């Protein structure tokens, strides 16, 4: 689906150009938006500008030509319609300082850091224009311009930080129309707890065993271990006063009960993506320090 005839493409920027930023950039419909990467290293800036970004994975290859600037050298007067924040959480404040002057008046800012910096973004922009993503898209960077995604069904949940921001969520969702599964939620914190439960149950097991999700699903003992981990995460969420979204299709009471229904949910998850791995497992395989 293309943009409306005569309507200019949006000018979308990413601050940070790691694996997740590259993955998201390649899933944007190029008929709807142009993409600019804001980076720290001149070498990466030059490579991105000349080669663009390429994503490879189980469901095919995607590519996106991009502009690229050092965050401190964006041309005067350049105004972005959307900004995806994809730096390490501790760098959020300093990254935004360099970007705020280049945001259009009603620009939207989307945190792709799973909730660790939402309030920092909102304080510097405006809560009604701040959004968060919950990504189920394990990835690993390939050089300075590539990314490998590790699941055949990557997906994203999008939420607004304020009630008034909800009406603008379609603007973000439409960027990825037909190229990425994007759903919306009124319970952003709950979606993050749900993802945390799945990550805790799968990431360490995949890293320690070297197995794929499909092989994990076929092992009764590992399935039961995953169930117990999910139960523990949901128990912690309850003690924190959180209301997690459904985990693999089941509510907290179903997980607390355990048994065959919970094990089958884990099995279905693994069998739906039999070759899948996690970002943590990929880091472990390479012997590199993980950010998970």
**What's the name of the CATH homologous superfamily of the largest domain?**
NAD(P)-binding Rossmann-like Domain
| CATH T-level fold name of the largest domain | Rossmann fold
- State which percent range the strand residues make up: 15-25%
Give me the number of helical elements. Answer: 11
Q: Quick one: how many beta strands?
A: 12
Walk me through the structure.
With 292 residues, the chain is of the alpha/beta class. It has two domains: 10-186, NAD(P)-binding Rossmann-like Domain (Rossmann fold, 3-Layer(aba) Sandwich), CATH 3.40.50.720; 191-286, N-(1-d-carboxylethyl)-l-norvaline Dehydrogenase, domain 2. The chain has helices at residues 19-26, 42-51, 92-99, 118-124, 169-173, 188-209, 213-217, 220-239, 252-257, 259-271, 279-286; strands at 10-15, 33-39, 53-56, 62-64, 67-70, 80-85, 103-111, 130-136, 139-142, 146-149, 155-160, 181-185. The strands form two sheets. It has an eight-stranded mixed sheet. Strands 4-3-10-9 form a four-stranded mixed sheet. Strand 7 (103-111), helix 4 (118-124) and strand 8 (130-136) form a beta-alpha-beta unit.
């Amino acid at each position: 689906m293309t943009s409306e005839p005569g309507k200019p493409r949006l000018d979308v920027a990413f601050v940070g150009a790691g694996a997740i930023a590259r993955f998201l950039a390649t899933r944007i419909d190029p008929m709807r938006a142009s993409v600019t990467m804001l980076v720290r290293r001149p070498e990466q800036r030059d490579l991105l500008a000349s080669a663009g970004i390429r994503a490879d994975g189980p469901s095919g290859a995607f590519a996106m030509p991009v502009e690229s600037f050092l965050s401190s050298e964006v041309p005067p007067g350049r105004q972005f319609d959307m900004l995806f924040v994809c730096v390490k959480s501790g760098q959020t404040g300093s990254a935004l300082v360099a970007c705020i002057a280049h945001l259009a008046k009603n620009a939207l800012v989307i945190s792709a850091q799973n909730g660790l910096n939402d309030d920092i973004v909102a304080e510097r922009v405006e809560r009604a224009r701040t959004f968060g993503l919950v990504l189920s898209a394990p990835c690993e960077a390939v050089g300075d311009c590539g990314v490998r995604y590790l699941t055949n069904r990557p997906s994203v949940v999008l939420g607004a930080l304020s009630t008034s921001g909800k009406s603008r969520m379609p603007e973000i969702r439409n960027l990825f129309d037909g190229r990425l599964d994007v759903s919306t939620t009124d319970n952003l914190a709950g979606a993050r707890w749900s993802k945390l439960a799945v990550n805790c149950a799968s990431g360490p097991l995949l890293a320690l065993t070297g197995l794929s999700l499909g092989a994990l699903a076929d092992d009764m003992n590992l399935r039961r271990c995953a169930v117990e981990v999910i139960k523990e995460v949901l128990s912690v969420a309850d003690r924190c006063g959180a209301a997690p979204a459904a985990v693999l299709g089941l509510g907290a009471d179903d997980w607390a009960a355990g048994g065959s229904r919970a094990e089958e949910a884990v099995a279905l998850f693994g069998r739906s993506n039999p070759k899948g791995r996690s970002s943590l497992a990929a880091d472990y395989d390479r012997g590199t320090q993980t950010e998970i």
